[in-house]
Amino acid sequence: DVAYNPADGQFYGFDLEGATLYTVDPSTGNTPFVVTINSENVILAFTITNDGRFLMIDSGEDAISELNTTTGDLTVLISAGFDGNYIQDISMDRETNTPYWAAYNATAEESQLYSIDLDNNTITLIGNFEDEVSGFAIASFSAADALRPAAPADFTAVPAADHTLSVSLSW
């Protein structure tokens, strides 16, 4: 799994099998070691909040846990209240700094979408998916703005000489 940390401008990668966090240099592909998680729980996915908090889907605790990137310790923030299993993902809405969890609730046998409230350490069910979800991402408006072409400059509209309903546009 890979996530971006707006607080330090770094990309981070997580080796699910080795429970190891790395930074990722997108220009070279280098992956310097950061920390190994001090837990035998299976971490299914992670995201990073705008202020640099590392949130993990912790299947051993059926919870959202926070990773201390210095010590490797996990702290349970929010217990799911269900058996979270199989394919899942977590992503950030960068505009609101709200994490969303695409969970598989094995207790209800439903793939579900939850919003995560980090101020109150609660989750709220938004609705069900048709199937398990992986590769879940939320596009931010600022990212979309970076891809949007600039507005035309020196824009002119010239009506047709014969006064028909046509116009030539140029910029």
Architecture overview:
This protein has 171 residues and is mainly beta. Helix content is 4%, strand content 46%. It is built from one helix and 14 strands, in the order E-E-E-E-E-E-E-E-E-E-E-E-H-E-E. It has one helix spanning 141-147; strands at 2-5, 10-15, 20-24, 33-36, 43-48, 54-58, 63-67, 74-79, 89-93, 98-105, 110-117, 122-129, 156-159, 167-170. It is extended and about 80 Å long.
Architecture blueprint of SSEs:
Elements: E1 2-5, E2 10-15, E3 20-24, E4 33-36, E5 43-48, E6 54-58, E7 63-67, E8 74-79, E9 89-93, E10 98-105, E11 110-117, E12 122-129, H1 141-147, E13 156-159, E14 167-170
Antiparallel strand pairs: 1-2, 2-3, 3-4, 5-6, 6-7, 7-8, 9-10, 10-11, 11-12, 13-14
- Gross morphology: extended
Helix run count: 1
- How many extended strands? 14
Strand order of the largest sheet: 1-2-3-4
Helix content: under 10%
Largest sheet: 4 strands, antiparallel
Cα-to-Cα separation, first versus last residue? 44 Å
**Category from helices, strands and their pairing:** mainly beta
Uncertain regions: pLDDT < 50 for 5+ in a row?
none
Rg over CA atoms, rounded to whole Å, is 22 Å
Q: Which strand-content bin applies to the residues?
A: over 45%
Q: Please write the string of helix (H) and strand (E) elements.
A: EEEEEEEEEEEEHEE
Mean pLDDT, to the nearest integer, reads 84
Keywords, please?
171 residues; mainly beta; four-stranded antiparallel beta sheet; 14 strands
Q: What's a concise summary of this model?
A:
With 171 residues, the chain is mostly beta strands.
